[in-house]
């Protein structure tokens, strides 16, 4: 049986949901945890291989929570053109590995008519509901002449997704979302409480060279998720083991705790070239985060 996010909201209101979640269950992730924040993983490190191999890798690396991002070979994920049957098959593939998805990349185009872009975003939100997601993640947009178009599409998406119990979130990714100034402008221009931010300390360093902790301090009350990656420096490598780059993970997490952050922490990158090395790297990064967070 496919249980959508809208079904889940109804069950929660009725008091059905509340027991500890078991990996692979249809109703997922309304759960307590020994860790203060749930730690999940994106498929990005496994993009040289098939998505099914990525799912096996994330399961083997000890994750239960996953996110779907990027252009994985042969995988449209929840792109506007996919069908409900496509979404159901994707959900079954994920569940077969005892994994639960919480977020997907929101693919929006801003060089097409506004209504077409809004329609594509809404279609993806409907797919996200069918897959049982809590978030759709925007990477922003780079060309300045598309900024206003982006604000309008995000405002519509935020309003539409609120009815489905899904939050639209944006991460720092250069361009319109480079660092705190740009992200705060986006929040102001979109002007909807269901449009929030996922912080990415590694991207702050990679795209701007700024201090992630100082940037984070300016985003009080706006951060609902964290994309975990390390970075060697401005424009530097991010596919590296945590703790070997410039990101001060303990300092970032202390600041998140002070901000009463309660969202997921999603591993986005790790070291390794061969498939088994990538899986081992993802596992090591998960353990690194668990160790740091446990000391807070």
What does this structure look like?
- By secondary structure, this protein is α/β, with parallel strands linked by helices.
- It has one domain: Alpha-Beta Barrel (TIM Barrel), CATH 3.20.20.
- It is built from 10 helices and 8 strands.
- Strands 1-2-3-4-5-6-7-8 form an 8-stranded parallel β-barrel, surrounded by 4 helices.
- The N terminus is likely disordered.
CATH class, anyone? Alpha Beta
CATH architecture: Alpha-Beta Barrel
Name the overall outline: globular
Count of individual domains: 1
Q: What is the count of DSSP helices, taking H or I runs of 4+ residues?
A: 10
Label the structural class.
Answer: alpha/beta
- Number of extended strands: 8
Task: Give the rounded overall mean pLDDT.
Answer: 91
Q: In whole angstroms, how far apart are the ends? A: 40 Å
Secondary-structure element pattern, one letter each: HEHEHEHEHEHEHHEHEH
| Proportion of residues in extended strands | 5-15%
Amount of helix: 40-55%
Cα radius of gyration in angstroms:
18 Å
CATH superfamily: Divalent-metal-dependent TIM barrel enzymes
- CATH topology-level name: TIM Barrel
Widest sheet: strand order? 1-2-3-4-5-6-7-8
Summarize the main sheet: 8 strands, parallel, barrel
Low-confidence stretches: 1-33
């Amino acid at each position: 049986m496919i249980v959508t996010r809208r079904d889940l909201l109804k069950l929660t209101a009725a008091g059905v949901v509340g027991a500890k979640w078991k990996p692979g269950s249809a109703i997922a992730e309304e759960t307590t945890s020994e860790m203060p924040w749930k730690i999940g993983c994106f498929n990005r490190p496994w993009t040289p291989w098939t998505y099914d191999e990525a799912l096996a890798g994330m399961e083997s690396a000890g994750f239960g929570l996953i996110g779907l991002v990027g252009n994985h070979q042969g995988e449209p994920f929840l792109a506007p053109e996919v069908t409900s049957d496509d979404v159901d098959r994707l959900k079954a593939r994920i569940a077969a590995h005892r994994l639960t998805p919480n977020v997907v990349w929101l693919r929006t185009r801003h060089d097409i008519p506004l209504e077409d872009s809004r329609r594509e975003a809404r279609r993806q939100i409907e797919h996200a509901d069918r897959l049982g997601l809590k978030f759709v993640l925007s990477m922003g947009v780079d060309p300045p002449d598309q900024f206003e178009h982006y604000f309008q599409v995000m405002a519509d998406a935020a309003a539409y997704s609120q009815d489905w119990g899904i939050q639209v979130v944006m991460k720092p990714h250069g361009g319109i979302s480079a660092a705190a100034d740009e992200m705060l402008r986006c929040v102001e221009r979109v002007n909807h409480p269901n449009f929030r931010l996922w912080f990415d300390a590694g991207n702050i360093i990679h795209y701007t060279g700024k201090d992630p902790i100082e940037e984070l301090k300016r985003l009080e009350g706006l951060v609902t998720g964290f994309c975990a990656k390390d970075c060697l420096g401005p424009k530097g490598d991010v596919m590296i083991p945590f703790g070997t780059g410039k990101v001060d993970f303990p300092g970032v997490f202390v600041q998140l705790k002070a901000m009463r952050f309660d969202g997921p922490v999603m591993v986005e990158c790790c070291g390794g070239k061969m498939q088994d090395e990538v899986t081992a790297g993802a596992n090591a990064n998960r353990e690194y985060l668990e160790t740091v967070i446990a000391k807070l």
